[in-house]
Design a protein that fits this description.
By secondary structure, the protein is of the alpha+beta class. The protein has a single domain (4-133), classed as Hotdog Thioesterase (Thiol Ester Dehydrase, Chain A), CATH 3.10.129.10. The protein is built from three helices and five strands; from the N terminus they run βααββββα. The chain has helices spanning 25-41, 46-51, 124-133; strands spanning 4-10, 54-65, 74-84, 88-97, 100-113. Strands 1-3-4-5-2 form a five-stranded antiparallel sheet. A hairpin with a 2-residue loop joins β4 and β5. The chain starts with a strand and ends in a 15-residue tail after the last helix. Residues 144-148 have low confidence and may be disordered.
Length: 148
Amino acid sequence: MKQLSEIEIEVRYAETDQMGIVHHANYLIWFELARTRFCAEAGKPYPQIEALGYFMIITQAQQNYRLAACYGDSVRVCCWLDWVASRSLQFGYRVTRGEQILTTGHTRHLWVKRESRRPGSMPASLRETFLKLADQTTFTRRENSDPK
């Protein structure tokens, strides 16, 4: 079963437009907050990953809006790991207000070696953890596909 991580966010005035509705760019920030929490809760916080000499750079971000979040709302951002390939991985997200789904989305990431700034394979010391988080036993071949 895939592991989930959730964070609670109170929508701040600075995150909204003139109508009091959350600006679309803020959902990506919320996704990042949930993703970094997810990795930390899994025992692989970002600073530890970077200390191994790797970055997880975003190569794709997608958001699907259903309902607006507004100033003063309390929203929950849920994050999970959709899939893991040898050189990339994809996180999924859901933003809710109570039982209402406001936004869903995903971010796709590529492993990049810190020193060379070139793509590389997932560090061996992270493979078991990330495969387990994605509920996989081996890498998928989704690097060039668009998973549903």
